[in-house]
Design goal:
disordered C terminus; 50% helix; flat; 4-stranded mixed β-sheet; alpha+beta; Glutaredoxin; binds glutathione; single chain
């Protein structure tokens, strides 16, 4: 998976699943950045070089970034997606944190063994998404 642009490719190490690298790839695509996503990285081999021992991990030449939200922000900055002013930057930050809340909820539902609780979490997620204030309160 990669986006189209002429810049030197960055590498995003993560498994090919829709989880902690997904937002980063969406931002890369929106910003026209050349990011190559690995398919099945060898975590044991990479681990000693990872700042916190975990993936995702982005390598952009000599810049190496761990932590999924730091990667999202790094790519948003490179792609010029953090807004042109304070208001735009605040909106960008809000969206990143909202995305994390939604991801956390989805992960909880995914790993929830109790089917009733899982269903409730999914219902709550749908409620959050359908009543999100973002489309009406921000006019970017
Ligand atoms: N706060 C970190 C969490 C990263 C994380 O939990 N990574 C997991 C995969 S989703 C991992 O690398 N697990 C393997 C391990 O901890 O050894 C982030 O947002 O990047």
């Amino acid at each position: 998976m990669s986006t189209f642009s002429n810049t030197a490719p960055m590498t995003l190490y993560y498994w090919k699943i829709k989880a902690r690298s997904y937002a980063a790839m969406a931002v890369a695509q929106a910003g026209g950045l050349n990011v190559v996503h690995t398919d099945d990285p060898n975590l044991a081999e990479l681990k000693p070089s990872l700042p916190f021992g975990q993936l995702p991990y982005l390598v952009d030449g000599d810049v190496k970034v761990a932590q999924s939200l730091a990667i999202v922000r790094y790519l948003a900055r490179k792609g010029g997606l953090q807004g042109d002013d304070d208001k735009g930057f605040a909106f960008s930050e809000m969206l990143i944190q909202e995305m994390e809340d939604i991801f956390t909820l989805m992960a909880k539902a995914n790993y929830e063994k109790d089917k009733v609780r899982a269903s409730l979490l999914i219902l709550f997620l749908k409620f959050v998404l359908s009543f999100s204030a973002i489309p009406t309160s921000c006019n970017l």
